[in-house]
Here is the input.
Amino acid sequence: MVRITAVSYLNTIPFIYGIENSLLSENIELSLDYPTICADKLINDEVDLALVPVVVIADLKEYYIISDYCIGANGAVNTVCLYSDVPINKVKNILLDYQSKTSVQLLHVLLQEYWGLNLHTSIGKLGFEKDIIGDTAGLIIGDRAFEMNDKYEYVYDLSAIWKEMTGYPFVFAVWVANKKLSKNFINDFNVSLKNGLSNINKALKKPHNLYCDKHMDYLNNKISYNLDSEKIKGMNLFIEKIKSNLSSSTFSHFLLLLFLHFF
Here is the structure.
């Protein structure tokens, strides 16, 4: 039995649909959580395989990127945004989403390298959305962002800004195992993900009943699922920008892993 956890957001519905409608469903134990819990489960060996932020790799003793699919975006994604009543140069405090690690790191990179700002940040608590007011901005990720996009005068889409700054897509999460899995399982797992991505309409209609034009546009035009060479370059660049928080050996091992897996 392979224990798997994935993010419980709209963007993973095609993956979940593919997994649940494959032969793998009889030999796996699947749970859904928000990103930081998925990461903790993988780090603590409570699962064998997880869809997790790339930055989690630094906390794993052993890791394997086992899929050619990811959660990424080639420009605006609409669900990883900084919200504010005032322009960024007038913001004094930023509340950070407790559900994410990668998006928080991305915001810190953009604050320093794109805006050239050194702002006070703190992790928001449950319900922190109501505290985004005046000169206090807030980073919100996931499905909650859909209802926030029309509430604030200033909405900064982090993936779009990353694309403008670097020219590369951004990778939010990849499928990582904390132990070796069989080649047969990895092959069947990737087939299941591919089948899910080929049936996005069905995935949205059943059993979630979430089908609407906004959701279809999001999954087909905002989320980019293939972990291709451009995303790998963008992912490497992002890791390089935050590598001061990683040991040099971990960083070198990570780059070697990517090179061997994809080339």
Observations:
- The domain at 80-166 is CATH 3.40.190.10 (D-Maltodextrin-Binding Protein; domain 2).
- DSSP finds nine helices and eleven strands in the chain.
- Residues 182 and 193 are 17 Å apart (CA to CA).
